[in-house]
């Protein structure tokens, strides 16, 4: 098939003007119904003969060089319609497809099979203007087809004006294709420019911002953002159209996260909001995941219209890791200072650890606070780290830990969700001031670790016998300062107490256990009184049972326990008699002795 080059403009003859009244009822294609076909045939016979007559009046010579040039000279300019352009316009139900990249240009094309023969002419005109012929170039198309392209001169591109297109068969003068359009309704816009992705200081969020693709039409587009995990290229990507005009804060002030390091609208399919914003906040992203982000443009359908343009080049951005990955815990012991602790695998390469803190983003139109560095990072045993700082009062606290490794490894970031000081209280252990044992009971008394929280502290007391791990834990009523425990006599006990703020305002975690107190539960005099009373009664009962059951055995036991007592009167009588006799004998001896002298 060859292409002729009609004159740049048809002669301004009244007989060659396509009347406006005929545009509305002309057939769109050769496949229309029979009635319209008859109308088209009448019109073609009327206008085609006129055009043929004019062509025969001297244009043949001017067409011949163009025909030879188009047949012999292959196109050397870049292809005006790419396969991507054709794919984006595939859903447009027209034989002649047209698009404008900047609303100051216009390109139209149609595809035909390779077997199609004959030469055609392409004409266009605005309402009440003279038809103009366009120089058509032919390009190979996949699957053996051909693509015919007309690039309009810039001076013939007008907005908000009806444009008429027509393709005529040069041999039969029949209309093959025709279309009516407005240049402002066929936009095929390039992606936005200067696309950036920034972390907004919140978990699972990234703020994506860009600049409009056309500086002359900054507020005439709607944008679509595509966000895909970089590690799963086969997964379907989530998309979102830019949301309403809620501003998350000046994106230039947001803290950036390196695209090489490890949270407005959620990425929801089908959300179509026509807005002119040039930013969107992607929410509900996974922590520590590297994402590929793309943006594309489309006229908003109000002043300009068109189809979705191509996606931008993928931009890589990564969300910070979760604080749980390093066991990051932050608390306040005194409602003024914050102590954060975390751990790092000792087997990992050594590097520097830095902790930053600041209030979280406070909303629209406010200037974000800069991250402040905690200066006193200390390293403990087994890869533990800690840092203490004094934050600004009256606001929540966000914490970010950056771990910079060696050997050119990327920096890792770990983010902790914002928390309030009064909800992260971790006091010191209570101080035991008294531990007294009386009658088998232990009385404990203690002082609250923080007097300001005395009325909002819960306590637990635990105790166990020495060398035993079987602790008994008792929950003590709120704000109590003493407790009495029952002990087993003759044992040694260890006792401890701890506190936890759990009031309506102050909340936190259990403190460490206090230093243990050691007490001895010894037996006192109170235990002897029942022993003295009960033992004789039991012994008497046993003897009485023996007397009734085994009399002989009872007699033997009785004789051994209570031997017979001699008769005192008889023994004394015999003693007195013996004494009397001895006295008489001594008296007689004395008298005889005296007489003899």
From TrEMBL:
Keyword Cytoplasm: no
Gene3D superfamilies: Immunoglobulins
Taxonomic superkingdom: Eukaryota
PROSITE patterns referenced in this protein's UniProt entry, alphabetically: FN3
Molecular-function annotations in GO: cytokine receptor activity
Topology of this chain in the membrane: Single-pass type I membrane protein
Subcellular localization, as worded in the UniProt entry: Membrane
Occurrences of domain Fibronectin type-III (ranges): 191-322, 429-525
UniProt GO cellular component terms: external side of plasma membrane
PANTHER family on file: CYTOKINE RECEPTOR, THROMBOPOIETIN RECEPTOR
Protein name: Thrombopoietin receptor
Organism: Geospiza fortis
